[in-house]
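Issue 218. Parser rejects a valid record. Input:
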Amino acid sequence: MRPLEWSKSFGNMAIAAVTVGLFLHIGLDPIRFIWGFASVALLWSGLYALNDYTDRKADAMHPVKKLRAIPSGKVSANASLVFSILLVFISLSISWFIDCAGLFTICILAMLANQLMYTMPPFNLKKRPVVDLISGSLVNPIFRFYAGWVLFVPAFNAPLSLLLFILGVQFGGFGLYRMSSKVHEKKIGLKSSVVLFGEKNMKRLAYASLAIGALSYVYTCLTVLPTIYLFLGIAMILALPLYKTALKDPQKIDMGKMYWVTYAQYLVFIAGFIVIYLLQLPL
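Output the parser choked on:
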């Protein structure tokens, strides 16, 4: 279920909800947010299990992924498939309960459809250049974000700069992460973006994306959010030395260490984002 990776969904949804409260001055119902997050987290848990199910043979040859529950054989393939379907069903049931075919349900269905096309034949988008990056790191963050937004606002009308911040950082990070698997993907004959475009081009794309994300965050803090959020962003820059290898030579990333560092920092950022929001509320 990869509970640590729930932080991506929680973070994107929390940023959206907090912005609704601060920018549009709308009261937030924490119970509604919790139900919404539960739906998104369970959806992705089911999709992660499905991804590990479909990739189990290739992952068994990967130096790191071979230790996961399904490719290692600790969990049977059939059991993981049933588990995946059950989690997705529960997620859809919750979304219908809190939204009844509204915009939140549309976000859930969009993420489900995109990830099925990313993972499953005949589409297998993760094996196709360009669309593997678009599907894996642009489509999903948008709907994770809007899943938090439409819980409180019945429209897809979030500030563009905020979306660019989220997409820039997550697309850049995903690009660097994918480069760590270049040797493995080339070995198994996968024609992905990192294999076809080469390390230099992928690094340039990742750097440009991260720069766009950073500039968009600064702009958002000056126009949409209280400027105190700018200091939160500056504080996060202090962790840059931890990403030295990831930025300079992504193929040498220590995946186990970087996995924990990335999500720990993101959780700290989201905690700061929420605390600042709570401090802005009238007494």
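Fixed in the parser; the record now loads. The chain has twelve helices and no strands.
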